[in-house]
Structures are given as C-alpha cells and as structure tokens.
C-alpha cells in the first residue's frame, strides 16, 4: 500500500479528500492528517510517506516550506499541492522547479482520483525500475552466482547437480556457497527466483502459474507461499501494486 499524508488547515477540505475516494482500490492508505506544515513535518520526520498532499497557505509553516524539507530529506516522496486560483501561478512555478503536481480548489471526486492515478503510475514505474536494478545489481557476479542465474528456470537445479558441474563434493560446495552468499544454497536460490518473479510480474502480462514455471517452481501454491513469505504480499497483490 502506498502511504498518503494530507496537510490542510481547513477541516472540511481534509475530510473531502479522505472520504471521497476508495483508497483501498488504488492500493493506497491515508496514514496521517495535519492542520499545518509544522505538525506535518514532526510526523514525517519519524514516518515518511509515499505521497504528501498539502495546502500552500497554512499557519506556522506553509506548504512550500514543508515540500522543500520533504524533498531534501525524502526525495522519493511525491508532493501534490492543494491550491486556489490566487496561488495557482505560485504552485505551478514550484511544480516546474521539481515538485510533482497540484490540485486546484474547488476540486471534485474525479479530480482527486485522476491526480492519484497519475501519481500511482509514477510510483509504480519507479518501483518497477528499482526491481529491475535490484535484479541486475544484486551482487558481484561470481562464477557460482552466474551458474545459478543461468539455471534458475530449471526446477531440477540442486546442490548435487551444481556440485557435479563444478567437480566439487556436495558438502564442500555447500560450505563455499554459504560463505559467499551468507545463507544456505536453497535459500539463496529461492531468493533469486522470487526476485526474478517480481521482475516478470512488473514487466509482463504472464499468468502467475506461467511465471512460477519460468522461475523454476513446479508447484504454484508453493511459489505463492514462498513469495508471500519473502515479499509480504501474494504475487497477485504485488502485481496490482499493493506494495512498494
């Protein structure tokens, strides 16, 4: 779930934003609300969010100053300004300087939904890129790691088959791999298969059972169980973007 914070000194406006939209359907949740920038910053310093929706004109600390602090400390947070016509040019200038978007008051349910869909698309793309980079740059590629990656799709990949390929005893290879990867062979293989599955879930339209087969799982139920165990979401939830 993408985490959202709403910062607005007008109670009715905050209520409108938080109640008009089905956030669960978007894979989002509102984790906090605040009446001004200072209150918001005190919260955000302890618990960053994915999306900050903030008014510009507020007491104690305005939205522009809050956005500057957030972007400096948490550059991945997406900032959306709430602004009236009087502040429109001001908000637009801030957006051009690197802040993300704005929502013009008065706004409707469809305005909020459209804005959130656009921000979600950006977040999804960023997560997709990070997933790809994590898969590619997971570690320096030793001869052992390269062999495992080349054989991930083979459900018959085992410590025994790998020991035969490299000319080691099973016990000796097991020790070498644990020293290199910091975990037992089978745990490392499952982690790599799940990383590959995440990439396929993000970048293809393959069915979940097809992805399970492609990454070397013969049993789709076991694949789903291990995926949730490692990622914290089911493959279906992950594909829908229910998590970062």
Give me the secondary-structure category: alpha/beta
Percent helix range: 55-70%
Report low-confidence residues grouped into runs of 5 or more.
none
Largest sheet: 5 strands, parallel
Distance between the termini: 7 Å
What global shape is seen? elongated
Whole-number average pLDDT?
86
Multimeric status of the protein: single chain
Q: What is the count of DSSP helices, taking H or I runs of 4+ residues?
A: 13
- Beta-strand segment tally: 5
* Rg (C-alpha, Å): 23 Å
Q: Give the strand order, joined by hyphens, for the main sheet.
A: 2-1-3-4-5
Taken in chain order, the helices and strands follow as EHHEHEHEHEHHHHHHHH
Portion of residues in beta strands equals: 5-15%
Account of the 3D structure:
- The protein is α/β, with parallel strands linked by helices and about 240 residues long.
- It has 13 helices and 5 strands.
- The chain has a 5-stranded parallel β-sheet with strand order 2-1-3-4-5, sandwiched between helices.
Describe what is shown at a glance.
This protein has 244 residues and is of the alpha/beta class. Helices cover 58% and strands 11% of the residues. It has helices at 11-19, 23-26, 37-44, 63-73, 88-96, 109-136, 143-150, 159-166, 170-181, 185-203, 208-214, 220-231, 235-240; strands spanning 2-7, 28-34, 51-55, 78-83, 101-104.
């Amino acid at each position: 779930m993408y985490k959202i914070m709403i910062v607005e000194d007008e109670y009715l406006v905050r209520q409108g934003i938080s109640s008009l939209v089905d956030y669960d359907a978007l894979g989002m949740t509102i984790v906090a609300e605040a009446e001004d920038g200072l209150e918001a910053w005190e919260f955000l310093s302890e618990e960053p969010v994915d999306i900050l929706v903030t008014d510009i004109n507020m007491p104690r600390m305005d939205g522009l100053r809050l956005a500057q602090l957030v972007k400096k400390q948490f550059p991945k947070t997406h900032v959306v300004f709430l602004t009236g016509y009087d502040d429109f040019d001001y908000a637009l200038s801030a957006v051009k300087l690197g802040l993300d978007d704005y929502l013009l008051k008065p706004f409707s349910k469809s305005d909020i939904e459209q804005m959130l869909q656009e921000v979600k698309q950006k977040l999804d793309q960023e997560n997709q890129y990070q997933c790809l980079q994590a898969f590619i740059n997971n570690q320096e590629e030793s001869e052992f790691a390269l062999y495992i990656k080349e054989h991930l799709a083979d459900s018959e990949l085992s410590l025994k088959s790998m020991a035969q390929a490299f000319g080691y005893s099973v016990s000796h290879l097991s020790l070498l791999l644990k020293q290199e990867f910091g975990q037992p062979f089978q745990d490392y293989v499952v982690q790599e298969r799940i990383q590959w599955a995440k990439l396929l879930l993000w970048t293809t339209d393959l069915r979940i059972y097809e992805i399970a087969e492609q990454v070397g799982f013969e049993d789709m139920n076991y694949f789903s169980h291990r995926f949730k165990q490692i990622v914290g979401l089911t493959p279906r939830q992950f594909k829908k973007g229910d998590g970062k």
